Amino acid sequence: MLHQTTGLKPLLCSVIFLLLLCAVPVVSATGLSADSTDTTAIPEDHPNLQPYETSYNLAQHILALPSYIFYWSTRPLGWGVQYAETRYPHLFEGERGDYGIFPLFESGSKVRFAAGALLFHQHLFRQNHEARVQFLYGTDDYWDVHAQYRVPVSQRHNSELIFSGNYERNPRHRFFIEDNRLFYSAEDASFRIQYNSSLSARMRMQNSVTYSNNTARTSSAELPDDPFTFPDELKGNYEILTFGNQFALDFRRGDMRKVSGTQFIAGADLATSLKNSTSYLTYHLEAHQFIPVPFLPESRRIGIRGMLLKSELLSGDEIPFFDLPALGGSRNLRGFRSERFRGSGALIFTAEYRYPMWDVLDVTLFMDQGQVFNNFDDIAFDRFESSYGFGVHLLTAKGLAFRAELAFSNEATRYILSITPTF
């Protein structure tokens, strides 16, 4: 994207140009000064007067064929961006207004495709009281509705209270046992109160209380004569109360783009069933590292993430299956279907190379490595599952606004559209 120059730079260029005109003798078309008495004409066949032409032979055209294909296949995208930048420049400023409606599209998560809208108001009822409502409707009659109201508490500690509710219905939710894909109908509703605060310039804290009501039923995709059907013992209604706490140490540098530094995150959730004596603890450790590529602008950087999740049963029979750590989907092991791998623990590593194409657009290349396990002794190098791919990230002043990625694995090729960052 081109940046507008200031008024001082053209003025300086004009002054320098006038000084050069005054200091250098006027040159005639023959290349001689006006005071010269030499009238010798430059020959018409002089090399400096001959037009310069280039031409490709057939072999060179064949070698250049990929660039021709890429150029002409992306021209409509370029024309569209130029049109949008001219007619709707606010889309490229990385800022939202005080209120509005934005379309939402999602792919590669729990269903093949979903679309909806985001409604938001930054100052509802009072200054800086933000309200958001977003909904998605997707294939297989999938519904996801989320509402949130954010209240600032203290400017000194940069603290806030967030009240949120979520409802999700997925009649064809996938459940994997080894390589067998089963289906069940999931209906989940939750209400959450979350308190965020900054303990220092580098440390943040998050506390939350969540009530969730989850129901697993027979799915319309389940066939009566199928030998692999969703287990009856997992069907039913679950009511769970969860208390969560998380700390983050952030030494990253950069606003719209994180260009260097490290972030550490540690948290734990204590969950208790309201229907029986089951209780369990889920903890996670996460680290992010951003490294600028040497000899290149710092906006060309490599992002690395490592994350460990582990659930421990404290009392009762077993942890509800939907609360066990899972890998696969739009945020980890992106080349696999949502929740493809599930266990009492999960380990994931991600590396991304990010470089800017425009002021608010990054191009990314990524690789994910991960595995699930029941005991730490089960972790092994030969058990890692791999996925890789590339994509683009649309940014705002506050971070990611939208990402589109193409991910590959030994099981599938998946196209991902999401407003949720990986890290």
Structural summary, described in words:
With 423 residues, the chain is mainly beta. It has a single domain (93-418), classed as membrane protein fhac: a member of the omp85/tpsb transporter family (Porin, Beta Barrel), CATH 2.40.160. 11% of the residues lie in helices and 49% in strands. It is built from three helices and 18 strands. The strands form two sheets. The chain has a 16-stranded antiparallel beta sheet, with no helix packed on it.
CATH architecture: Beta Barrel
Numbering strands along the chain, what is their spatial order in the largest sheet? 1-2-3-4-5-6-7-8-9-10-11-14-15-16-17-18
What overall form do the CA principal axes indicate? globular
Residues in helices, as a percent range: 10-25%
What is the averaged pLDDT score? 85
The count of strands amounts to: 18
**What is the percentage of strand-forming residues?**
over 45%
- Counting helices, strands and paired strands, the structural category is mainly beta
Uncertain regions spanning at least 5 consecutive residues: 1-37
Largest sheet: 16 strands, antiparallel
The rounded distance between the terminal residues' Cα atoms is 26 Å
CATH superfamily: membrane protein fhac: a member of the omp85/tpsb transporter family
For the record, the count of structural domains works out to: 1
Element-level helix/strand string? HHHEEEEEEEEEEEEEEEEEE
Summed up, the helix count is: 3
